[in-house]
Task: inverse folding
């Protein structure tokens, strides 16, 4: 009798699978060429890793398969990004999008394509504070924290170190500018002085004028809101060379092993913070990344989580449609519910299918607040003996 | 009256942040402008591919440097790239001769207008640019090794007891020395050798020089070889001192042209003077004099304002402004260039 | 093959390619490409006027397009009252200071005879003017930029319909062209090239750094549109009615939930296509107007004179023609058209993104369009605009595909293979240069050569 029942149950699930299973498509809409192509080279695979994991498990929506389709945002050219998003949504008919990456093209694609078509976008790396208040019909989410949050973190850390005066330089784009303004605002409000807040253009050979200006303004610490493989590193190098500054604060774009590797022990005593957690998730994800053949670099955890959240929300909504899943995305990301780590997506999907609740923790300990953006957990680092070491979490 | 220590500090500050970088950058621009001006004097067009040919020469040098480093060859305190430089020069010369053979020669035979040459050089620029990025990628490359500093800022402070440090990098020293040697060589070549004289004759009056039996093909070839060598060396020095990135080399085009035109295009002396004029004006106009002023000024005149004429974002606009002013006031440049 | 036939064939081929995209990819995508093709053609027309009619070599197209883009933003965004209150007066004062300085300097230059006195007076006037302007300007800028900097932090615009910005963009570009033309036209031909290259970089640098005016790199989003929004359409009754009629076949026989699902999809698709068609209509109208004017001008005595000047400047000058004056005229006209196209592009994007202005995309690509299409021929430029933009957008997948195909025989994980596939995108540059050189050498007159009315 028992055997018959099991057989019947199996048969029922099997038939259910064939009845409702569909081929779900998710767009991976990142800047595969252009300004941040070196970061995207790892972010793309990270998002695809989550998608493949779910597809193989067969646990999503009665055994649906999930495939990814890539689209290039170019990071800067909004016309090209719009065309690419148009192709993803209207031609490839993706159900939701992981992306975009840079804030400018993300806004263009959201307003010109995703909103008219009612498609959900979950960005892993657009950090502009402006995106918090943008009109989005509830379609836009991000697993990256807003720069407004990082400004508070930077100000706190500087104050704890007893720094009274800083010089500030930023990469001249919406990321750098937004972050610099946020830092200046928070730090000044907490009583500190910003002697200079100057832009630097990425991709130049010579930063001696910029460093001369920063040095002339002076300050105990130079905050470099730039990119590690771009002007940011060159600014630090030139500052060290000319003796303009000895200590640097490194925001998220500057935290990476390649910096102390390139500059050696000269950098000792500098510190900073980048999104990250001490959760198990980050460690598990790093292993998965190595196995998957890519680096767990900046924004890769967020990319994985963005894709995972979309699929969990689909399961919770019982539909692959953006209009339905957008209602559930915040629910699956936040408590209450069973905690879900990277690599456990199938488990999460199953709990949801059985009517339970999940609290997706993922690789970046994601917690969505406000209009659907990450609350932001930061890992504090310092450079000691020419090595990057973690000194705490906040 | 400020104290002597303060005056020394101000002096060191200015030397460290304006004088030394200015001389280095000026030498790099001068070498680039010298190449542009030679092409202009003999072939009579502005070569827009110049920046990207610089990048090409540097790329070859970098590749050879990496190979030398991998087999363990080094020059001790000097960068290994100096050993690889002849390969870079050779490759650049070959590339230039190849381009001339398959692109510019046709237009010469057609007696096309200069603007057609400029347009063709734009096409060449595209191709070389694509080629360089295709081979080495669009990213930053560093290929410097050896001793980084002649004088370190911290050591200088300890040595002199001054507040301000002074640093001179090996590459800065190298740039200035090599530039000096090259400039002397170019002048000797143009004034004293037979080929150099032929080049000048051809440049001054093409028809007359042909009448007197000068082989135009040979003149063109010599010019390309000289220009290519200068270009490759300028590119490598720039890359050693700063870093190599294809896009940066493209952006060097504007200051290099400005230098050549300001000095008087077609005039080797002008190119060199123009290089330093552009470099120093960029540095002087965008430097904030706050610290400098505060060292010299009496206490009651101390300021918290930056005392900056123009913010550094507009640095490259300076070379453009100077260019416009020169064109308005003295269209032929400081040393009366050629205007065809 | 005569020119009319050639043109018909070439344009039919383009139409076929766009229809192909519509059928095999999607109509919305096809229309997106079409809209950008039209804008590119307008830019190419502007360049063609300068190069094809007069032989002027302008490599600062990016700057003129960026000025147009700035115009679109400045005309259409509503003014930010708080920012005006914070620093509006000081900005106005500094503008007055700047203008006064220029006027006084001009007077001094004209009225004092050349000599040491004039130089000294000029320096005094300029320095005082500079200090006065900075005195008002600096506090104004910091006041404006700190008013709610995450959302606004700039003065905003005039809040007028964005379509007005198209002629305004043209005017902005024309103004810049006038200044450059005054300085460099009449000197050597390649000085114009260098000057335009420089000014275009400066314009973009100003857009990036003058936050009080343009919000800089923080971009201005959500510019109002000249056409309806998709969401409004999807909710409006008349549009739903229209879609019900158009999709009557697929809706037939459906009831309840099934019907509303199909209808919803149809509404989304139709609204997106409708909006793009509206844009296409507007852009095509501008293109046709400019084309008509160009053709009329080219065939007028003015056009004949321009070509005469282009073909033999010395002879034209000997005939008493004011070569520099004509050149200035044509340079301003061409640049204005580029400015209009720039404003149209920003309108289509719905946002001003200063970082997106890169010379490769906005200057050199347009040049390839003009040369390949056929310099001197207006239809040729339009064809070039369509063809090259189409190739440019579709080249990205094609390049990767080609490299993958070519390296198919190499083993998986081979370093050379990976490098080739990774580098495929850079081949786009190489290819563009190659096409340019090939056309210049073997078909210097382009696909649709200039007609000679002998």
Result:
């Amino acid at each position: 009798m028992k055997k018959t029942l099991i057989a019947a149950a199996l048969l029922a699930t099997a038939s259910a699978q064939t009845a409702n299973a569909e081929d779900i498509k998710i767009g991976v809409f990142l800047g595969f060429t252009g300004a941040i192509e070196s970061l995207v080279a790892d972010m793309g695979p990270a998002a695809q890793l989550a998608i493949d994991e779910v597809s193989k498990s067969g646990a999503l929506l009665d055994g649906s398969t999930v495939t990814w389709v890539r689209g290039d945002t170019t990071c800067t050219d909004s016309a090209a990004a719009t065309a690419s998003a148009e192709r993803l949504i209207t031609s490839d008919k993706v159900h939701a999008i992981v992306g975009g990456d840079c804030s400018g093209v993300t806004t263009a694609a959201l307003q010109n394509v995703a909103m008219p078509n009612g498609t959900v976008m979950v960005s892993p790396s657009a950090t502009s504070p402006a995106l918090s208040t943008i009109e989005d019909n509830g379609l836009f989410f991000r697993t990256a924290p807003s720069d407004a949050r990082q400004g508070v973190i930077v100000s706190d850390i500087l104050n704890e170190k007893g720094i009274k005066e800083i010089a500030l330089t930023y990469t001249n784009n919406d990321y750098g500018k937004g972050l610099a303004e946020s830092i200046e605002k928070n730090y000044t409000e907490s009583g500190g002085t910003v002697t200079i807040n100057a832009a630097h253009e990425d991709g130049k050979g010579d930063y001696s004028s910029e460093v001369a200006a920063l040095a002339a303004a002076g300050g105990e610490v130079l905050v470099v809101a730039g990119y590690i493989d771009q002007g940011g590193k060159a600014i630090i190098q030139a500052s060290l060379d000319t003796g303009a500054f000895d200590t640097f604060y490194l925001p998220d774009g500057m935290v990476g092993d390649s910096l102390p590797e390139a500059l050696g022990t000269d950098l000792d005593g500098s510190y900073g913070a980048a999104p990250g957690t001490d959760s198990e998730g980050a460690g598990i994800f790093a292993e998965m990344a190595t196995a998957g053949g890519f680096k767990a670099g900046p924004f890769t955890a967020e990319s994985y989580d963005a894709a995972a959240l979309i699929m969990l929300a689909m399961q919770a909504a019982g539909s692959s449609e953006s209009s339905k899943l957008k209602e559930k995305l915040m629910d699956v990301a936040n408590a209450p519910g069973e905690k879900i780590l990277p690599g456990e997506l199938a488990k999460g999907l199953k709990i949801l299918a059985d009517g339970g609740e999940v609290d997706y923790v993922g690789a970046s300990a994601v917690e969505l607040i406000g209009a659907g953006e990450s609350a932001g957990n930061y890992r504090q680092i310092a450079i000691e003996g020419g090595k990057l070491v973690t000194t705490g979490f906040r | 009256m400020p104290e002597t220590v303060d005056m020394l500090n101000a002096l060191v500050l200015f030397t460290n942040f304006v004088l030394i970088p200015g001389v280095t950058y000026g030498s790099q621009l001068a070498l680039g402008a010298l190449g542009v001006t030679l092409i202009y004097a003999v072939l009579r067009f502005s070569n827009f591919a110049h920046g990207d040919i610089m990048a090409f020469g540097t790329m070859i040098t970098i590749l050879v440097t990496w190979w030398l480093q991998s087999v363990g060859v080094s020059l001790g305190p000097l960068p290994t790239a100096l050993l690889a430089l002849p390969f870079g020069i050779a490759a650049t010369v070959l590339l230039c001769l190849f381009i001339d053979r398959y692109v510019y020669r046709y237009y010469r035979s057609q007696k096309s207008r200069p603007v057609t040459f400029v347009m063709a050089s734009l096409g060449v620029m595209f191709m070389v640019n694509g080629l360089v990025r295709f081979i080495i990628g669009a990213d930053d490359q560093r290929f410097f090794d050896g001793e980084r500093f002649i004088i370190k800022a911290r050591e200088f402070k300890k040595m002199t007891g001054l507040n301000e440090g002074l640093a001179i990098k090996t590459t800065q020293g190298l740039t200035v020395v090599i530039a000096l040697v090259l400039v002397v060589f170019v002048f000797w070549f143009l004034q004293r050798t037979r080929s150099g004289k032929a080049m000048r004759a051809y440049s001054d009056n093409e028809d007359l020089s042909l009448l007197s039996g000068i082989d135009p093909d040979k003149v063109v070839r010599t010019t390309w070889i000289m220009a290519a060598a200068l270009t490759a060396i300028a590119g490598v020095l720039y890359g050693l001192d700063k870093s190599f990135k294809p896009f940066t080399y493209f952006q060097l085009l504007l200051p290099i042209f400005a230098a050549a035109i300001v000095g008087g295009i077609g005039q080797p002396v002008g190119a060199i003077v123009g290089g330093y004029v552009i470099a120093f004006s960029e540095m002087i106009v965008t430097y904030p004099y706050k610290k400098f002023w505060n060292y010299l000024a009496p206490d009651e005149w101390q300021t918290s304002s930056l005392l900056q004429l123009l913010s550094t974002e507009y640095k490259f606009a300076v070379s453009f402004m100077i260019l416009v002013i020169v064109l308005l006031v003295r269209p032929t440049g400081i040393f009366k260039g050629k205007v065809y | 093959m005569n020119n009319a036939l050639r043109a018909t064939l070439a344009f039919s081929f383009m139409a076929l390619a766009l229809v192909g995209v519509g059928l095999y990819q999607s109509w919305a995508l096809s229309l997106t490409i079409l809209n950008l093709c039209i804008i590119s053609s307008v830019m190419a027309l502007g360049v063609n006027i300068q190069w094809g009619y007069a032989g002027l070599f302008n490599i600062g197209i990016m700057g003129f397009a960026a000025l147009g883009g700035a115009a679109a933003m400045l005309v259409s965004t509503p003014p930010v009252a708080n920012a005006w209150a914070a620093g509006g007066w000081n900005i106005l004062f500094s503008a007055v200071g700047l203008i006064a300085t220029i006027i006084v300097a001009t007077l001094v230059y004209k009225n004092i005879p050349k000599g040491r006195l004039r130089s000294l007076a000029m320096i005094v006037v300029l320095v005082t003017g500079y200090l006065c302007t900075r005195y008002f300007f600096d506090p104004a800028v910091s006041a404006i930029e700190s008013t709610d900097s995450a959302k606004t932090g700039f003065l905003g615009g005039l809040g007028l319909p964005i379509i007005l910005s198209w002629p305004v963009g043209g005017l902005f570009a024309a103004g810049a062209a006038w200044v450059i033309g005054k300085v460099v036209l009449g000197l050597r031909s390649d000085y114009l090239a260098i000057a335009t290259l420089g000014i275009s970089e400066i314009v973009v640098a100003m857009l990036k750094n003058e936050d009080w005016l343009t919000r800089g790199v923080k971009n201005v989003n959500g510019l109002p549109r000249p056409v309806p929004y998709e969401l409004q359409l999807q909710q409006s009754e008349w549009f739903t009615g229209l879609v019900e009629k158009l999709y009557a076949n697929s809706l037939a026989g459906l009831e309840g939930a099934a019907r509303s699902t199909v209808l919803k999809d149809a509404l989304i698709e139709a609204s997106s296509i409708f909006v793009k068609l509206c844009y296409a209509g507007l852009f095509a109208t501008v293109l046709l107007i400019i084309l008509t004017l160009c053709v009329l001008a080219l065939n007028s005595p003015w056009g004949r004179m321009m070509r005469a000047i282009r073909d033999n400047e010395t002879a034209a000058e000997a005939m008493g023609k004011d070569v520099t004056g004509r050149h200035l005229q044509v340079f301003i006209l061409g640049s204005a058209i580029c400015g209009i196209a720039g404003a149209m592009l920003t309108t289509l994007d719905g946002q001003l993104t200063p970082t997106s202005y890169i010379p490769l995309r906005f200057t050199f690509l347009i040049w390839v369009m003009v040369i390949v299409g056929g310099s001197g021929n207006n239809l040729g430029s339009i064809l070039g605009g369509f063809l090259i933009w189409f190739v440019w957008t579709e080249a990205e997948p094609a390049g990767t595909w080609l490299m993958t195909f070519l390296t198919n025989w190499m083993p998986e994980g081979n370093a050379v293979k990976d490098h080739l596939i990774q580098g495929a995108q850079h081949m786009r540059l190489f290819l563009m240069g190659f096409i340019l050189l090939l056309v210049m050498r073997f078909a210097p007159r382009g696909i649709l050569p200039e007609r000679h009315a002998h």
Notes: The interface with chain A takes residues 16-18, 21, 25, 138-140, 142, 148-149, 152-154, 156-157, 164-165, 167, 169, 238-239, 242-243, 245, 247-249, 251-252, 282-283, 286-292, 306, 308, 311-313, 315 of chain B (CB under 8 Å).
